[in-house]
Design goal:
99 residues, mainly alpha, 2 helices, 2 strands, flat, transferase activity
Length: 99
């Protein structure tokens, strides 16, 4: 039943709720996916020519992407009030739940 326990832990970490009766089915599916990843690890790439990305269609060329420029209206300072009243703020940062 170790696999069922692992699935329960996985559900807790992913914040998923799976009924107890579905755990064996989900366990089998997760095991199948992990076996597929094992098969990918066994794939031999030596002697295989790497195909260039020239055949791929990109939505935008990498040269045409915008620069990341911070917008001053998103900065938080003690003088300005955010539009949403936040309960847990410390040193200008919003505190979330501890995971």
């Amino acid at each position: 039943m170790a696999v069922g326990i692992d699935i329960k832990k996985l559900c807790d970490l992913a914040k998923l709720e799976i009924p107890e009766q579905n755990i064996p089915e989900i366990s089998a599916k997760v095991k199948e996916v992990l076996l597929m990843f094992d098969q990918l690890d066994e794939f031999i790439t030596e002697g295989v020519e790497i195909i260039s990305t020239e055949d791929l269609k990109f939505e935008r060329a990498f040269e045409n992407l915008r620069d990341d420029i911070p917008r001053p209206n998103l900065e938080f300072s003690g003088k300005t009030q955010p539009k949403i009243k936040l309960k847990n703020i410390k040193d200008g940062f919003v505190l979330g739940p501890r995971i």
